[in-house]
Request: fold
Amino acid sequence: MKEEHKEGAHGHKEKYKYGMVIDLDKCTGCGACMVACMTENNVPFRKDESNKLVSTAWMRVFKATNGKSYPDIDVCYFPRPCMHCEGEHGHAPCVSVCPATATDYNYETGIVSQIYTRCFGCRYCMAACPYHARYFNWWDPVWPDKMEKALSPDVSPRMRGVVEKCSFCFHRFQRARDHAYAEGRREIREDEYQTACTQACPADAIIFGDLNNPEHKVYKLKKSPYAFRLLERLGTNPKVYYLSTRSWVRRAGDNYLAGERSK
Amino acid sequence: MSLGRRGFLQFCLGAGAGITFSPLPWKLMDDISIWSQTFRGIPIEVPVPPVGEVNIEKSVCTLCPGGCGISVRKIKNRAVKIEGAEGHPINDGGICILGVAGLYQLYGGARVKGPLKRAGNRGEGKWEEISWSAAISEISKKLSQIRRNGSAHTVACISGKDRGTVPQLFKRLLTAYGSPNFISMPSSEDTERLGLKLMQGEDASVGYDLENARYILSFGSGLIDGWGSPVRVFRANSAWREEAVKGLAKVVQIEPRLSNTAAKADRWVPIAPGTEAALALGFAHVIIKERRYNKNFVMNHCFGFEDWTDNSGKVHKGLKRMVLKDYSPDVVSEITGISVSKIVALAREFARAKRPLAVCGRGKGSTPEGLQEFMAIYALNTLVGNINKTGGVRALPEVRTTAWPGVAQDAIAKRGMNQPRFDRAGTKAFPVTESLFNQLSGLMNTGKGAYTLSALLVYGANPYYTAHDKAAVAEALDSIPFIVSFSSHMDETAQHADFILPSHTNLERYEDVPTPAGLNVPIIGLSRPVVDPEYDTKHVGDTVIALGKSIDGIADSFVWDDYESLLKETMGGKWDTLIGEGYWKDAGYSPAAWSSGFKTPSGKFEFFATGLYRAGIRSHNDNDYLPRYKPVVLEGDPGSYPLVLIPIESTRLADGAVANPPYLTKTVADTVLKNNDIFVEVNPKTAAAYGLSEGAVAMLKTPTGEVKVRTHMYEGVRPGVVAIPTGLGHSAYDDYLSGKGVNANEVIGTVEDPISGLDIAWGSRASLVGII
Amino acid sequence: MDSALIPQGVKRCPFPQFALWIGFLSIFMLWAVVAAGVAWIKGLNTTNLNDYFGFGAWITADLAVIALGGGAFFTGFMRYILGIEDFKHILNFAVIIGFVCYSSALVILGLDVGQPLRSWFIFWHANVHSMLTEVAFCISCYFTVLTIEYIPLVLENRQLDKIPLVHNFSHNLHRIMAVFAATGAFLSFFHQGSLGGTVGVLFGRPFGFREHFAIWPTAFFLFIISAMACGPCFTILVTRITELITRKKLVKQNVIAKLAKVSGWLMVAYLALKMIDTVYWAMVTLPNMGVSVMDMYPESPFTIWILIAELGFCGAIPAIILITEKGRNNNFLLVPATILSCFGAILNRYVMTVQTLALPVLPFDKFVNYIPNWVEWVTSLAPFVYLALLISLSYRYLPVFPQEKELNP
Amino acid sequence: MSAQHEKKESAASSPIVIVFFIIGLAVSLFVGWSIFPKLLYSQKKQPIDFSHSIHLDAVGDCESCHFFREDGSFSGIPELSNCVECHEEAQGEDPEEIKLIENYIEPNKEIPWLVYSRQPDCVFFSHAAHVKMGELECKTCHGMIGESDHVEIYEENRITGYSRNIWGKSIGGFKSNTWDRMKMDDCAECHEEHGTNQACFVCHK
Reply:
């Protein structure tokens, strides 16, 4: 693999730029990605999770309709992880607002972090995120019976009162990097670092990889004429791309004025 | 100012200066900062998961019959994650929502932690802990006694499935014991196997070559809502989507509601509920009339297409005559609510398509379809000649394993086995059917059974929850004086048992997994113990062997030391492959050629099911032997029940014997479940007609029962239809599951297929009345 | 009973009556303390806040009390920096109001965080790019300034003043008060602004986001001016209420009128700038994001009327009253004008906080509204009771109004 | 107060008050530097007095017990199974070895070692990155522990619950060797020097 070190606008080394392409034509809305994410990342559950406004799901599947009546109605699912916005030069909407530097933009991977032990729960980042990708721990996490045994040591469980979000399964990157280092390699192969949702997706609708690497699948897919991103016009510069052959779905990905043409 | 005061001040000043230049405040600040970061809550402390060596164990998931390969990530002895096994022929790395949540089955609530004996009244929840040896000896004493009394045939077993070594062990137990009453829970596979036996003469399941099909005509099958082996179908669907972009594939979903399958399909055909067979025959009409069928196949390898004459010289009606006469697009349009032009266009498309495939089995396929309905849909595949072809259908044989030594039946056993089955399967009433769970409640509650059942063993099934007309089933089963459950979890059925002999969960035991429904190649999977048993449970196979050894007079049939050696012996030469790969696939399998493919007396594919006649079903109407649409008469009069209720089956809610883990409930939308209220979907037009608004509380009444629901308006439901989600409304298990919503089976009754006797209720008549 | 503590030469109500009144206020305060305790101990799940409304009643209350408390810094600024001597007659009172507002704001901010034990990380691990950091720093510093400004007044209590050390100390403090006032004014300009910036920088939220001028979003400047305008109004309003309750004239009309005039003209300036800002936002900012201004006012309670109420009823009307001489000298016009002005400020802060979050940004997302629960209501309204409490105590025992003796011989 | 009075008083008391100041200073410095650390840390004994030097002589290198697994993860503190390899039966008469066998090997119980370098749960430390790629020696962070004859007393911070070795033995936080402290700042310092990534998601999880 060719080693690519791009100089970012602020002089940061951009080694990788991890991102996702989600094929909405293939996505069946089955929800496996949500649960794969929860079980991978030690996200707890409560007895009643039906109030979706206080229910943590790093990966959440939104349901969108074309707004038409029977029988012309159409439905599409939008799986929504954290977009790991790059903004302009790494200024994601949430990063610069955090008063305690509990979240940052990693220029080497393009991943927006969240450090639970630093966060004190002011929720300013949640107000900043238009995707609702950030979740607050309203309750103490409880794992009933022996569920505590199923906790992964790779991801630190969160205490009540802090904000959490999708990390692109960054611990898997760390794992892959350890493995590569142990074998004397510096570069991580595409298949070595995949997020839990990508791996689980039974429809292979989620593709993950380095958006800067021409050999990765995402590099090509993001250039598809059917590709779009959510709320691109806000300037969030997200790293999650969506594909859909249905034009109403592509239009549903962003806001447009009446009569304005969409992509 | 006094000296003392000034001195004190100076002392303080000095102390202040000293403290500042000592580490005390700074170190304290730092420590408090660390403490506040790692402060993990009072009184609930957030756990720190211990680290350790990672082990990956391969196994096969048995939470549904899908047979996906899984790889379980372990940290030392803890299983921390279930993932799809890369390279597995069924799921190749993918995993469904239930599989990935599977650790809840192991570590979560409601596990039965050891053998239990009922202490209070039935269903009261009072139990006495009992040792395994005591439990087995008490149960075998009871069963020995029944046997001695000459009532061996009154012992029944309800099993979730009938294929695989564990169900076969139960069957063997009954055979040696002297009871014909091995009953497996029904599914659409039952009808399909029956259909194949009649039309192709084979004891086999239908294999759908979805991966290679390019025009998929789905008659209500929830292809991406959990039908068949779910991950495998998802993967096929993704392949269709890739081809569809290039214009090379098309999926048409025929269903009254815009399900996920319908939404992802290229075309949704909203049909009147329950009229799929009519539409299939309408398509057949167009195909036959326009001579678009595969002439070679139909003329040379089919029987009963044209009229035929029997040995007595009587002329019988063929499919062609019947379809052309009875199912013109006009008639079908009237029945199905689909326009004539659409019927004609779809029929032409299907017939013209490269590798077309018609699929049946509504929703997840948990309710059987009518036999003639299956024949009608399957006939479409026949007409286009895709039987045993790439992208078509095939009769998939069972993987051959080493046969067990014959059952040593004594006189009691032989006498018992000669008794008719309680459920009337295989009797004169329903000669072609093997097992009829749905007949139980009717026969028992009316006292019309040939005899009364005195004991019941339940494994891998939860009839108190999953059966239609839940109340009637509960009443019937409650009347059996002795029930033994082998469940790992405190499900509704275990709750009503007298003994619970908890079995290991899927991650704690060996088990073979037979070819899942609908798959296109014969395969066998091996589920393996991934972790040591968490509780004092036992492999169900070992329990059955132990029972067999201790019930008087049948021990000779149970010669194995334990289940593992039995399994190894049964798998024979395949064992090493199973241990190594986790599955054994019949690599050399290919469907038979047309000339040798049919085991019917005619050696041909039979549109006209002569097998029914041979089995003793006599009718003067030839239509009774042919694919046909016979309207299902739902209970209740349309006046008081103006709406039609259909179930919504979704991957996000497990509605079978394996209950929904809380992770799944968490993903369910608040328009399905809010607090403890279930939502039914209705078209806004229907809602307006009944004065219901979004979220309104209403009474959903059917002839079977009535439940309180809330309404969710959804444009994707046909007007006049109410759709209710399945998989909610448990009354057992733990607080994370029970009391949430309503069990759809409380309001869906049973409808008997006239030929097979299976319950084919795809819905119910219903009314929806708002409560203010 | 407590006559020895009461300043010389003024009349106060009998002690039992006063005790009853304090007791009454304390009950409510106790309720608020219970609510705060519930939130702190059991966590924020006891509120109606959720993942869509990370900010709610508390942040609204924070922004609002700081705007209303703006009278303190602005009066101080006019008195000490601009040298308008008249304002010294009301400055003490403005400082008390400011003290209450800022201490309330700090407590509410402390309530609003999920991990109160770590709330000091905002200083310990400060991110200088965050508007909230700026807010926290400035509010804390300015609260210290207000405390320093308030202490001399406390020390002027008849009994305390008898202690020579205390007397000298407060005397010396008085001399350097101008320095603190200047510092306070400087800090206040920043944090009033950064409160506006808090919402103004959220480029993921079309309703709140504003274009930047220099390094600040325009909301930064608007918040400063609106606080300068409504702060004095609140001071006037509270003065009038105090006068009503005590049935005494406490501040001369010319002082009030002058303050009202300044406030009025600032409101005019604010309205003009706010109009320009709103028009630019509606015509340029929003269309670039693909939304029209009417998308921002989709349904009740967030219809266009909320904007009209804010700028018209609670903006233009009080401004007109305040800038006309007749208006500001007529109590029946002045008091409603100050009420409207204060309400306008609260409404503005509410809209900037809650409406910003209520409007879905993702096209397929739902509009969600939020209503605070009792924990939030009680704690958010507590500042007003706390204000009554502190004013009652200060008025009784401290020489708050220099003109009181003169006006009530 | 008259000027005379004032002068007299200051003249008379200034040397004495300075003494008070000095006493205050001395006492607080003593408390801060000497008493405080004693109060701050509790002392705990390791379950077995393990000698690194004897084992190092016997097995030759650190990697025999502290090894990398195939997946690149680091084994850290050896498990009992490592010990069993040699100590299934007593090799000598050392009372510590007998303790090992009687208390742990025979009942097959893991030894509850107190880990000097234990970091909070939110920390991700990659030995592979530092040892394999960074080519750091063990002692760069762990010091001379490999040469020790006895395990030192484990001092646990009563507030944080972590070992004293994290902050370092010097209560003032002074460090003369790279292995003297193991705080985030020490990591960051080295990362800064080597131009390695400083983002949160490098060392945190």
